[in-house]
Structures are given as structure tokens and as C-alpha cells.
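Researcher: I'm preparing a figure for a lab meeting and need a structural model of a single chain. I don't have an experimental structure, so a prediction will have to do for now. The sequence is pasted below. Please return the structure as C-alpha cells so I can convert it later.
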Amino acid sequence: MTIVTSQEIAQFRSLFIDNPTAMEVLDLIEDCEGDLEDAAMSLAIRAGQQPERANSEWLDALARKWRAVICEQDFRDELQNNSLQRMMEYLYTMPTFPKILAVPVLLYVLKQGVNNFCEPFDALK
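Model: Understood. Here is the structure written out cell by cell.
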């Protein structure tokens, strides 16, 4: 289980004040007592996805599916500095990425540690 604290949620609210979708997602994460996987599962169902795994496995699999994009050096550098706006905007432009899941995926990557998350990708280079 990945828990996002109320302090972290407040921090991300300040980053996404002009993004109503992100604010709605942060509300849901807060309603789930910070349980990122539970919130992501609810959002996935709302987005028409049918997760067939346990919550923690499903969010991890979704994040790994987009690892090549998330771990591009420019995005990676920004994520390491908690700068998420450009990565969010990029994910929103990808037609196959469920936009409502951008916040949970990025929070998951940050909670795992950007370098830890991207390490398997680095091994392929």
C-alpha cells in the first residue's frame, strides 16, 4: 500500500490549483485516506478500465507500462525536483493514457523514488 500524506496532498494541490481534474483526483485520494492504490482503482473503473489485479499490483503495472515515457531524461530530472506540470501536460496529450490516472501514476513514481522506478529502464540502455 502506498500512502500519500495529507501534507503531500496539500503540496500537490498547490501545484495543480489550475487543473480541476487533478484537484478532483487529489480529493479522491484524500477520501481514500491517502491510499493511492485504492484511489487509482476507483479512478480506473470510472475511466472505463477493468483492473483484473490487486490494487497495488495494478497501479504498479500501469506505471511500468509508461516507464519509457516517464523516465525520459528531461522528465526524470523535473520529477526528481517535484516539478510535475510538464510531465502531466505530456501525459494528457497521449491518446492512450487515461488522463484521470496521471496524478496517481506520478505520485506513485515519486513515492517509489524516481531513480528506483527508472532503474530497470536504465539497465536497458
